[in-house]
TrEMBL record:
The gene is AUGUSTUS-3.0.2_11538. It catalyses: S-hexadecanoyl-L-cysteinyl-[protein] + H2O = L-cysteinyl-[protein] + hexadecanoate + H(+). The keyword Aminoacyl-tRNA synthetase does not apply. GO terms for molecular function: long-chain fatty acyl-CoA hydrolase activity; palmitoyl-(protein) hydrolase activity. One of its GO terms (biological process) is nervous system development. Keywords: Disulfide bond, Glycoprotein, Hydrolase, Signal. This is Palmitoyl-protein thioesterase 1. InterPro entries: AB_hydrolase_fold, Palm_thioest. It comes from Tribolium castaneum. Belongs to the palmitoyl-protein thioesterase family.
Length: 304
């Protein structure tokens, strides 16, 4: 091999390494997804397909669908039985361990995964979220569980009874994820005192200024509500609305609620800075068309 061929080989090699890196880095901000109740990181009929679609629409993008647990089955179980505090710690560690996420990422939360991603943002300094997309998230909790996802009927009935009658007992809060964002408007003060997750991340009792500051680091917080949602009660929680305390029919929207009027969480500031967006989409829970997603979410928030 003569000198020129050798130099040529080295140059080719260098070029390949550089271009491989370029492809790996991609031109798009990485995306982290968090699945909903009864789902897992990777089922081919749900988030597995979403990941594939995002990779197709944003060539070279790094997409991480968080698996909370040791396997997909464990991930599904943890969606019902592992306290959100622990889930958020696990997610924080996963993000910290991924060097491709260290410069920030966009995040898409599906259903309860949306309030967990917000918890992650508020609690995990390593999670530099740029645009936070909440698809059918329950930011003011739920008061009703008409569907338990993949759980059997008898277990679902048992869970419903627990939520209706004992959601704020300490052992129920520890044992059942959905109890931690159960919001009983007839017992508003009990919710504030004894919810071990939602009441905390919503600054109901005390104001955690760290939470307020972390929320301000977002470029955009996008709240998507499914107009015909029959799974989430009330569906206005997807826009931070909820039943007015003391009854369960009249809705108080975000701007009428203390969390906004007292700006307990920094949402009003976000809104005033035009970083808070309310999108409505016709359809049942998490039912959307890719055309809608592309036009309203991908083009506006994922092409940075
Ligand atoms: C909630 O906590 C406050 C302060 O500790 C207490 O005064 C109040 O009685 C509690 N309310 C309920 C319903 O437990
Ligand atoms: C879905 O919700 C929209 C907006 O509230 C409403 O106009 C429409 O009739 C609903 N569609 C169905 C099938 O319920």
């Amino acid at each position: 091999m003569n000198g020129i061929t050798f130099k040529y080989l080295i140059l080719t090699l260098l070029f390949n390494i550089l271009s491989a890196n370029k492809v790996k880095d991609g031109n798009f901000t990485p995306i982290v997804m968090w699945h909903g109740m009864g789902d897992s990181c990777c089922f081919s009929f749900s988030l597995g397909a979403v990941k594939q679609k995002l990779e197709e629409l944003l060539p070279g993008v790094h997409v991480v669908s968080l698996r909370i647990g040791t396997s997909e089955v464990n991930d599904v179980e943890n969606g019902y039985f592992l306290h959100p505090d622990k889930q958020i710690n696990m997610a924080c560690n996963l993000i910290q361990a991924d060097p491709l996420l260290s410069d920030g990422f966009n995040a898409i939360g599906f259903s309860q995964g949306a309030q967990f991603l917000r918890g992650l943002l508020q609690r995990c300094p390593k999670a530099h979220i740029k645009n936070l997309i909440s698809l059918g998230g329950q930011h003011q909790g739920v008061y009703g569980l008409p569907n338990c996802g993949s759980l059997s009927h008898s277990i679902c009935d048992y869970i419903r009874r627990l939520l209706n009658h004992a959601a704020y007992l300490e052992w129920v809060q520890k044992a059942l994820v959905q109890a931690t964002y159960w919001h009983d408007p007839l017992h508003e003060q009990e919710y504030k005192n004894y919810s071990t997750f939602l009441s905390d991340i919503n600054n109901e009792i005390t104001i955690n200024t760290e939470y307020v500051q972390r929320l301000q680091t977002l470029d955009n917080f996008v709240l998507v509500k499914f107009d015909n949602d029959t799974i989430v009660e009330p569906r206005e929680t997807e826009w931070f609305g909820f039943y007015k305390p003391g009854q369960s029919s009249v809705i108080q929207n975000l701007k009428e609620s203390p969390i906004y009027t007292e700006d307990r969480l920094g949402l009003r500031k976000l809104d005033e800075d035009s970083k808070l967006h309310f999108l409505g989409v016709i359809g049942n829970h998490l039912q959307f068309e890719w055309g809608w997603f592309q036009e309203n979410i991908l083009d506006s928030y994922l092409k940075n």
